[in-house]
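Sample pair:
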Amino acid sequence: MITVTELRKSYRQGGRTIDALDGVSLEVPRGTIHGVIGHSGAGKSTLVRCLTLLDRPTSGSVSIDGRDLTSVKDSEVRSARRRIGMVFQHANLLDSRTAAGNVALPLELVRLPKSEKDAKVARLLGLVGLAEFADAYPSQLSGGQRQRVGIARALAADPTVLLCDEPTSALDPATTNEILDLIRELADTLGLTVLIITHEMNVVKRICDSVSLLEKGRVVEQGPLREVAGSLNGRLVQALLPLPPHNSSGTGPVLDLLTAGGSGSGPVLSELARRFSLDVTLLAGSVETLAGEQFSRMRVGLAPASEDTAPAEPLELNEVVSHLRARGVTVEVAA
């Protein structure tokens, strides 16, 4: 597992101190995928450098499988890094080497016997779906294929942790999904613990089990995807289940509704309309599958239904809210 505790990294710039990381803490259980998301300048790159000991943190600790990496001696850093496989935005392959040659490079550095090395390279290229491209040079490969070679190379040292730094930001949408699905498959097959640094929420939606939102060097929200997506008051739910632009004026009271998995199953809106004699207007909605569970977020407007010949009954909003919550729907009064 990965445990980061109160990690701080400060730099001197001119006459002032810049806190690139300001007490970052997170935990990634073994065999899960955790996404760290944030805009440019949030501290993501500094976090990567501290996790791989390219930069020593000012304070705090980074633990991999119970070993505190921030306490290792400089002479032991290279050995400690072997626990971590790195996948970068660009594969950074050596143009003069074939796909097999690039994957073999880490094995050559530890002087693995040739027969073992060749067998391992073949196995790794098979794992990433490139068994037939062993003799191809990077210039002969697509962007997605080069990234697959980079992933195979990252696995060469049998790491327990895979650290992915913007692994798909240079790829088209279809190839992005293929690479993300491959990372998910490898994590499940090999029992890898994966940390993905990204600025793309679609990466988090597709494969992550948990997520941390990083802003100005601080974690401002984090948790399992099911939990952060199930809270209408959270910041991350706005990005995980965004509502399209809409106009809610003139619709009466407005409610935000959230259902997850089996909660609120059935025709919630039509039942609400019948039970309380309401006109229910769906103003906006979003449906996503997150961590294998379907989430639905809706914004609805309510107005008493009335016949032309009779006045409408006053709307008992508290009763409506209580009824929805009893059905397992998360409800907030938006307006």
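The first helix runs from residue 44 to 51.
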